[in-house]
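Limitations
The structure tokens in this dataset are predictions for the assembled complex, not deposited experimental models. Users should treat interface geometry with appropriate caution, especially where small molecules or nucleic acid strands are included. An illustrative entry is reproduced here so readers can see what is and is not provided.
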Amino acid sequence: MSGEPRPCVDSPTEPGVAPAPASLVRMANQIASNAAHKPHDVAVQRTADHLREFWHPSMIRTLESYVASGGEGLGPIALEAVATLR
Amino acid sequence: MSKVRQVDLGTPAVPGEASVNVVVDGMPVNVPAGTSVMRAAATAGVDIPRLCATDSLEPFGSCRLCLVEVDGRPGTPASCTTPCSPGMTVRTQTPRLEKLRRGVMELYISDHPLDCLTCPANGDCELQDMAGVVGLRDVRYGLDGANHLDGATDDSNPYFSFDDSKCIACSRCVRACGEVQGTFALTIAGRGFGSRVTAGAGESFMGSECVSCGACVQACPTSTLQEKSVIELGVPTRSVKTTCAYCGVGCSFVAEMRGDEVVRMVPDKDGGANAGHSCVKGRFAWGYATHRDRQLEPMVRERITDPWRAVSWDEAIAHAAQGLTKIQAKHGVGAIGGITSSRCTNEEVFVVQKMIRAAFGNNNVDTCARVCHSPTGYGLKQTFGTSAGTQDFESVAHADVVVVIGANPTDGHPVFASRLKRRLREGAELVVIDPRRIDLVRSPHIEAAEHLQLQPGTNVAIVNALSHVVVTEGLVDRAFVAERCEADSFAEWEQFIALEENSPEATSGITGVPADAVRRAARLYATAGNAAIYYGLGVTEHSQGSTMVMGMANLAMATGNIGRTGVGVNPLRGQNNVQGSCDMGSFPHELPGYRHVSDPAVRAIFEAVWGTTIDPEPGLRIPNMFDAAIAGRYLGMFIQGEDIAQSDPNVAHVKAALGSLELLVVQDLFLNETAKFAHVFLPGTSFLEKDGTFTNAERRINRVRPVMAPKCGKQEWQVACELATAMGYPMDYAHSSEIMDEIAATTPTFARVSFKRLDAEGSLQWPCNDAAPHGTRIMHVDGFVRGKGHFVDTPFVPTDERTNRNYPLILTTGRILSQYNVGAQTRRTPNVQWHHEDVVEIHVHDAETRGISTGDPVTITSRVGETVLRARVSDRMPQGVVYTTFHYPGSGANVVTTEYSDWATNCPEYKVTAVELAPTSRVPVTDEEMHAQHQPVAGRS
Ligand code: SF4
Ligand code: SF4
Ligand code: SF4
Ligand code: FES
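Predicted assembly:
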């Protein structure tokens, strides 16, 4: 175990101060899974509300462009939630 | 001498209305039933001589000095043990009493070394005082008979000594250790003339169970138990009331001084949080404030590999301001930010977040509360409407059942633990929910009714199971819920929690806790009368920390355990001012008073006062800052009094982030781990120099008063103001009280708070406003802050951090009594004698299968890093779980913790890391080796 930081995969197109999509994907999925026991549209709404209330705009923009480029790794609730943020 | 001697009325106050009239030496006085004659007399202004009585302890009646005469009664009863009865007429000074008292004193003095003039307690000794008061003029018995004058001195404790030759066997120390501290380390061994104070089973103080709280030293009427600082420096000559800067209990102290040197810290009897008690840290471990390692000059350097260069304040501030401004010009307004500290005063924190929002022009401000209690803020706000605990500490004295979840109060919050233990000895029941068998589970005179020893990471499953029992066994307080809570969210929650998947039977496979134990605990809690929850970081530092906080709030609401004394949901806050730093707007989405930045009305309040516009969007959280720094988009940072390179999880990641910054400004007492990455170092002030307020876990705002001038020449808030000004946003206050005035003017929960009112009232618990001008002891009494209580469904979602073949053990972390967090302060005091290195505790079975014995160095490996610690084989941990502390930078507990965090707040998941342990020939890194990695200061050897 080297203790070195893992490489950051980042979108070269997105300016701002957002962290790398990999960690944003993980966080968004985590928010979604804590809402997943609700009916799908409620879960999507809750996830979107949480992102809007607590996330830095550049994080949201980064995630949006990540979704635009396929959104690999994002679960269905998180994926839809990001789409409703526009 | 202007030293304040705290008033001592001889025996404890008795609660209730004054209803009994007595006359003492012709003075009428009215006291509550059950009050002792001694206390009634003292209340009337008549001091009865005494030695074995003091008002922090129950009366004992052993010294026979406090005898009085009562009209119509035979004999001379001891006034400390005689309760007042209606119409009693008491005489405290008669020829008979005078003779008796002189006889008693003569016996004491005949067995006491007569070295008063050279005794360290000269002028501060009750025996000396009493000899004067009773008019003792000669001692007829010589020193030829049997005596104790050759008694030995026990110097084993670093902070106080025990000189047996001076002991009068009054037993105050023994009772203080039992009644006040609850440790029961002392006894009186032997009988009659042979009675002697003994620590443990005849060991030294350090060898016994003594936790060095100092209650015995404070209670001792003679110099037998004496602070070594008093022996060294002499008795104090002046005193200043202030507040401990260690933990979130927030104990009040009287700093007793000689000139600008602290002689001792004496817990303040009037302290709202501590009522005259303290722990080893607050009472004794303040020496770090004058430690030679303190960095007192500002310093700069171009690169972090350069040596430091000491410069003037002006140069350091100009350097920082230019650097930050340059980054913004090149990379945008959002490319810089800062972190406020929970160790600093409310005023210092307010000014730093103001600097970031107004001078930096963004909301990239976060605080170390992110890594401890941010889920508390989120969870309690969602359910109750406010981000704070519901009770004062005194409330625990009225609880019938206490549930302690993920907290270890005897180590982490010792003075609260003493209050709790007192209540448990009186008969309240205790439920402990913790993977580790903490001391509270079984300690002298205390035994938990249930210890739910769950697997780390399964809190939510347990709280759901408890609520499931409440709902399905008809234990809901329907009247409370109907009147005080939302009908629809309750109905939804009730349906959710009643699902079979939440039953104790279904969850026991997840939690490892037998279903019947969960059922018993739930019934105990729900039917207690008054049931209270106290919790710590074992709740919050999980991937579902916020969910768990809401789960506890649901449970409390469903059983009606909110809104009165003796109940509630109470976070035990880690750092002294973590409540305050959150209150002061340290989060990127909230302005002071927990109001969202997107609310134009709230922004307008601050914009009017600050004369600038505020960004309506939330800023970056600490982990986002790190990620953004590594991505090359966040380049400048101001860190106030935090050692994130030691305290934050996955330090390799943190260090990589810090190492990618173009400009890091660190303000601290010491060159800490984070400062290794800094370009500008600004010296800070210790609590002995600060002038401001701390807010403790009870929402109690306490004054921190300077006992000496700032050693670095400036208050920290002045430095932030100068930096903001140098960046083009002028900030200026004549005194820190003006900062509190600005807080009060902009933050409704603080509307009636000012230094003047704090000085007059001692302390104030927020909300303190027109509706509650004297503050608020208990929250949500007539209604929740948000209106109706809101229930939230809390499905259990397992953490992504899983054990597997490579990492089969779960590492969880905590702290111990004598050390404090990253140890920057306590490691620089004699507290190291109790804990000189972090160790990893491992279950005997796990140790055996790996060939590990106590004392062996072992590697701890997680998927992000590896460190070396010594092992301690222990039966406190369940099999499969290992435990360590993070007080020493070299031990690198956070080298192995991961970046996983709470879903709602990003509070790191410190309490669950999958690891493997293996014996190694490497040795743990020492403190000295860590220190040697700092670059030198140019021109200094
Ligand atoms: S210092 Fe505290 S724990 Fe130790 S013997 Fe005295 S009262 Fe007991
Ligand atoms: S040590 Fe002090 S308090 Fe304890 S019995 Fe002796 S004189 Fe009393
Ligand atoms: S309990 Fe906490 S606040 Fe009180 S003295 Fe100890 S460290 Fe200080
Ligand atoms: S003070 Fe009352 S007997 Fe000692």
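Some entries come with short summary sentences. For this one: Chain A touches chain B through 31 residues (CB under 8 Å).
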